[in-house]
């Protein structure tokens, strides 16, 4: 290598790294913007039926064809994450972490559910989460048909997460992308 090519190589690599980081950020912003537009486009949300602790109850059908009802999970800790499969960068980062969390806390009675807002079919969601992202069947996935669940929870960003205690109360909610320890801490505290 000549001196000039030695100088160009690190510059070329750092430029490529900046481009990759820029594409990732653009994907995250696009995903968050899409979720915000979806949430605001549906308008006002009527008051939802709540569990006795105030968390809105809901029922969804998982991609495995099973019914999941929040009220039916009493005695378990439930992690509810709103994603939007397909080309969503946030989803591709969060789903594997959620899958690992489902496995890690299964013995403590923790159930982890992804409610997908993409309006994809069960087959498309199965292809994305199980096929492309390789998440296990321990991570429950359900389509948010008509965006009913995300409306009840007034979700405005992809990646919004709720952790419910064994009594059905909201123990934590927020965004944790890139801060896996925040999620793990919230689950551990609810499962203690």
Outline the structure in words.
By secondary structure, the chain is of the alpha/beta class. It has a single domain (41-191), classed as Glutaredoxin. 44% of the residues lie in helices and 17% in strands. It is built from five helices and seven strands. A five-stranded mixed sheet has the order 5-4-3-6-7. It has a two-stranded antiparallel sheet with strand order 1-2. It is globular and about 35 Å long. The termini are far apart. Residues 1-12 and 17-52 have low confidence and may be disordered.
Our Rg estimate from Cα atoms comes to: 19 Å
pLDDT averaged residue by residue: 80
The biggest sheet amounts to: 5 strands, mixed
Give helix and strand order, one letter per element, not per position: HEEEHEHEHEEH
CATH C-level name: Alpha Beta
**What is the CATH topology classification name?**
Glutaredoxin
- In terms of DSSP E residues, the strand content is 15-25%
Q: Helicity level, as a percent range?
A: 40-55%
- Cross-sheet strand order for the largest sheet: 5-4-3-6-7
Supply the helix-strand structural class: alpha/beta
CATH superfamily (homologous) name: Glutaredoxin
Number of domains: 1
Task: Identify the CATH architecture.
Answer: 3-Layer(aba) Sandwich
Query: How many E strands?
Result: 7
Question: What tags apply to this protein structure?
Answer:
globular, single chain, alpha/beta, Glutaredoxin
Offer a concise description of the structure.
By secondary structure, the chain is of the alpha/beta class.
Q: What topology emerges from the helices and strands here?
A:
Layout: H1 3-41, E1 59-61, E2 67-69, E3 77-83, H2 89-105, E4 110-116, H3 122-132, E5 140-143, H4 148-152, E6 161-164, E7 170-174, H5 180-191
Parallel strand pairs: 3-4, 4-5
Antiparallel strand pairs: 1-2, 3-6, 6-7
């Amino acid at each position: 290598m000549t001196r000039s090519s030695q100088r160009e190589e690190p510059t070329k690599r750092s430029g490529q790294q900046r481009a990759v980081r820029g594409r990732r950020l653009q994907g995250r912003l696009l995903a968050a913007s899409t979720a915000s537009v979806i949430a605001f486009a549906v308008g006002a949300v009527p008051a939802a039926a709540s569990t006795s602790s105030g968390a809105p109850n809901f029922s969804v059908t998982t991609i495995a064809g099973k019914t999941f009802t929040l009220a039916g999970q009493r005695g378990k800790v439930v992690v509810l994450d709103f994603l939007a499969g397909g080309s969503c960068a946030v989803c591709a980062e969060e789903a594997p972490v959620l899958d690992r969390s489902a496995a890690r806390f299964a013995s403590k009675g923790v159930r982890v559910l992804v409610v997908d807002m993409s309006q994809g079919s069960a087959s498309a969601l199965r292809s994305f989460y199980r096929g492309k992202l390789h998440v296990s069947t321990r991570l429950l996935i359900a389509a948010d048909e008509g965006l009913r669940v995300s409306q009840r929870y007034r979700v405005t960003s992809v990646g919004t997460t709720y952790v419910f205690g064994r009594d059905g109360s909201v123990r934590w909610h927020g965004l944790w992308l890139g801060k896996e320890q925040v999620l793990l801490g919230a689950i551990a505290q609810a499962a203690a």
